[in-house]
Amino acid sequence: DLSAEIGLVMQPKKSTAFSREAENAIQLADAIGCEVNASGIVAAGCPIGGHEYVAEQAQKSADKVEGLVNILTSLDLPLQDQLLIMRKSLQAKVAHFARCGLFSDIQGALLSSEKAISDAVLKLIGREECMVDMEQLRLPTRQGGLGIQCLTARDGIVCKAGFLAAASLAQQALSTGCQSFQHLKGEYERTLQQMWHEVSTAYTCQGACTCEHMEVISLTDALSGGMLPGLQRDMSLRVADILHDQLLGRYQARLA
Questions:
Q1: Residue 210: pLDDT band by 50, 70, 90 thresholds?
Q2: How many angstroms separate the CA atoms of 64 and 158, rounded?
Q3: What span, in angstroms and rounded, lies between the C-alpha atoms of 238 and 154?
Q4: Residue 207: which pLDDT band, with cuts at 50, 70 and 90?
Q5: How far, in Å, CA of 15 to CA of 41, rounded?
Q6: What is d(CA 249, CA 139) in angstroms, rounded to the nearest whole number?
Q7: CB 167 within 8 Å of CB 202
Q8: 76, 23 in Cβ contact below 8 A?
Q9: pTM of the model
């Protein structure tokens, strides 16, 4: 069976059966002696289920991030330490959202968690949103920003890249298992193909932009070439380069 193929050991008391086909879940639950969850399950920190279930679990994670932000800002720590923890730890939790579901399912959770972090950062630096250029704060520190993530920007293009990265890892892990679990061969193939088209063709730069162009290739070639696992980070860097170029252009226009 699938668990034997990938080396899993079943723990019925800690297990829950879920399938989009209810009868399949019932049969599996009876076979291994566990309960059925009709809505979905959380596996390795990622919600698996219908759109509403994924959105609900993502919002629960966002609520945890907001709670941690409140705790962090109440601690007697130097402001710089609070900022570093915010950037290096809490933002990593938010970045994980991208690999948990479709952007349309988790957008609300991302918006609320990103707002909590942005508001906290503004408080740490003693500024109000109207006093700063938030796009500059979202640049990496190497480009003069504070490295505040914004996965919802540009119609969630970085978030979509993260989902593609997760799908590619699932494809590799289950390449010899049940085909229905293989994202690039199952029901999500059309969705992933469309998502890859958006990501791979995003931001074709023109004019004086000096950032590198992303070569447009097929999803199959990208998977076989090992491009997808690091796609979220690569797209994040690409978007940052383009944003940096646009900001410089605006500032130069003001000074002209």
A1: low
A2: 22
A3: 12
A4: very low
A5: 9
A6: 15
A7: no
A8: no
A9: 0.76
Q: At what angle do helices 51-74 and 103-124 cross, to 10 degrees?
A: 10
User: Is the separation of the CB atoms in 102 and 54 below 8 Å?
Assistant: yes
Cβ distance 173 to 164 under 8 Å?
Answer: no
CA–CA gap between residue 31 and residue 12 (Å, rounded):
10
Q: Which runs of consecutive H residues, i.e. helices, occur in 102-178?
A: 103-124, 134-137, 153-173
pLDDT of 2 reads 59
Task: Tell me the DSSP string of 237-255.
Answer: HHHHHHHHHHHHHHHHHHH
Conformational region of residue 143, where left means phi above 0, alpha means psi within -120 to 50, and beta covers everything else: alpha
Give 42's contacts (C-beta < 8 A, 6+ positions apart): 48, 57
Query: Using an 8 Å Cβ cutoff, are 198 and 160 in contact?
Result: yes
pLDDT digits (tens, 9 = 90+) for 102-142: 899 999 999 999 999 999 988 888 888 888 888 888 888 88
Q: Which two tokens stand for residue 142?
A: 């190497």
Contact 157, 163 (CB under 8 A): no
Alpha helices, H only, 33-98 = 51-74, 79-85, 91-97
Mean pLDDT on 191-210: 68
pLDDT mean over 163-170: 80
Instruction: Give the helix/strand (H/E) hosting 42.
Output: strand 40-43
DSSP designation for 217: -
List, for residues 59-103, the tens digit of each pLDDT value.
998 999 999 999 998 989 898 898 888 888 888 888 888 888 889
Structure tokens at 34: 């566990």
